[in-house]
Amino acid sequence: MGLLTRVKLAGRNIVREVMKNKVLFLMLLPVLLYFLIFHYAVMPGAYVAFVDYNLNKGIFGSDFIGLKNFEFLVQNGDLWNITKNTLLYNIVFLALGNIIQIVFAIMLSEISGRWFKKVSQSVILLPNFISMVIVGVFAYNIFNFNSGFINTILAGAGLDRYEFYSDPGIWKYIIVAFKIWAGTGYGMIVYLATITGINHDLYEAAYMDGATTWQRIRYMTLPILKPTFILLLLFGMGGILKGSFDLFYNLIGTNSVLYPQTDIIDTYVFRSLVGQFNFSMGAAVGFYQSLFGLILVLVVNFIVRKIEPDSALF
Amino acid sequence: MEKTTIKQDSGSLIVKGVSYVSITFFALVCLFPFALMISSSFMNEQEIVREGYKLLPKEVSLKAYKMLLGNSTQLLDAYQVTIIITVVGTVLGLFMMSMAGFVLNRKDFKYRNFFSFLIYFTTLFSGGLIPTYILMVKHLHLKDNLFAMILPGVVGAWSIFLMRNFMKAIPDSLYESATIDGAGDFRIYWRIFIPLAVPSLATIGLFSALGFWNEWYNGMLYMDSPDKFPLQYFLQRMVNQTNLGALINSGAVINTADLPTQSIKMATAVLATGPIILLYPFVQRYFVTGLTIGAVKG
Q: Is the ipTM of this complex over 0.90?
């Protein structure tokens, strides 16, 4: 069969299918339009990274300058700095976050008071539901120089006030702390669900055989959590170049003193758009982030498929 | 199982003790910023200037709240904007996503895998912030339009898949018998599927509503007129602003020297958080179910 006939046949099939399932296609249409406009129509726009963007000429009318934008970013060291920051922050978020979530999930599963369990679970989950703007307010409330809570205590004790907002070094820890603070509840419940899914008879049997609590946690709970842990870690790897813009922007804002240690890819792209109107440079960074993100997801998925075929995404 | 006679080993008691202590401690850490924010909002401005924010103020003052509620039309505007985008966005999103989920789960829908992949692929690769900005502003002309805050968050790929997975639990025979009775596809969706899908609609609806309630980013990017700022962006501007007089739209004359600058920031934060904290105990149960559903099969 010739290619042309095949295409014709396929076309006729689609038309027949649409006619047959008119209503179903209509029902799917809004969502399809949404993805076509807000995602697929945007993709060719990534081309702006390769031009010298001129507002009047538009993306495809502007002069093509190839990899010049990327060259500049590499040469001035920005690309390296923000990539390093983004990677390091995300590695810490992933590793430390997951470990703390597992520890809390196990602790919560070991205690028996139902009322205590419910209340503490709700309280720990609470930070997950407020906006990062509020988290920014919290940080201001705690750390600002004139009236922040910590400085209130320091002043009260007769010590010197500490200028948190001009010390880049300390924000690494504050950012990580807030990230853990906000994310523990969610992860804890995911792990807790896995633990409660474990057949209770297994634990009973372990009791009968004289296993201690430590042995039970060490040889039963942890191994059962391992696949979930690996999976979450591997999936997290896919998004490792994507930062938590929300968190960073609301804690750091436009305080450029703190950038050396707190600037990530997303905040950089945002600034090149809003502060400097440097569309092409920002788009170049964004393109680099998307492309490497995609490659990472593909690699990670390949690894997941090797380890646990059932859990692979595709 | 309370009557188990197996003797508890000492390790178990240690584990239990450590667990109770650490969980209590962490729960207090989670609550602390909320408590500090609330108590700071009730503080007297002189005390804040003199000594700083405290957990236990010497004197309780309602001045910041009176000032905010009495003078700020902008706060009311911001509330209005947030409520509009939350309601419109959530309802529109649920309608679109549930229809899509329904169609993508129908086994007689031939191209369901193709369309599923089309949707899934958008989670892997995106054009990025700047092309999106150009599209929204230059081509869709959504600058300063409330839809610029509604549309980007209205539909989520994962939520569609969550809904599709949920529908798998509804037996096909229900659809078949409805078809035999002469019901069309939309009628089946509306009369059979929607009533059965209430739990998943509630879960995804809550998450979606929460996303819109917390919206500030698109507001910052696309809104120009202050009366179109959503609540959280209004709050953010207020916290970063040293000159609050500019933000507080006064009907009456305000003595700016008398303005409770510091407590008013916290009072605004309380008012922006308030509704969520108040609703939280009621919806928390749904969230937990939602989180677990989402985790078991994303």
A: no
Contact B97/A21, CB-based, under 8 Å?
no
Q: Which run of H or of E encompasses B286? A: helix B261-296
Count of CB pairs separated by less than 8 Å, A with B: 276
Q: For the residues of A30-97, what is the DSSP string, one character each?
A: HHHHHHIIIIITTGGGGGGGGEE--TTT-TTTSEE-TTHHHHHHHHTSHHHHHHHHHHHHHHHHHHHH
List chain B pLDDT tens, one digit each, 298 residues.
444 445 566 778 888 899 999 999 999 999 999 999 999 999 888 888 888 888 888 888 888 888 888 776 788 899 999 999 999 999 999 999 999 999 998 888 888 899 999 998 898 888 888 999 999 998 999 999 999 999 999 999 989 988 888 888 788 888 888 888 888 889 989 988 888 888 888 888 888 998 999 999 999 999 999 899 999 999 988 887 765 555 555 444 555 556 677 888 899 899 888 887 777 877 777 777 766 655 544 3
Phi/psi class of residue A290: alpha, beta or left (left: φ > 0; alpha: ψ in -120 to 50)? alpha
CB-nearest to B52 from A30, A151, A290 is: A151
Tell me the nearest-neighbour CA distance from B102 into chain A, angstroms: 9
* A274 interaction partners in chain B (CB closer than 8 Å): 221
- This prediction has a pTM of 0.87
Helix, strand or coil, per DSSP, at residue A163: coil
The two structure tokens encoding residue B111 = 């191209």
Is the Cβ–Cβ distance between B94 and A243 less than 8 Å?
no
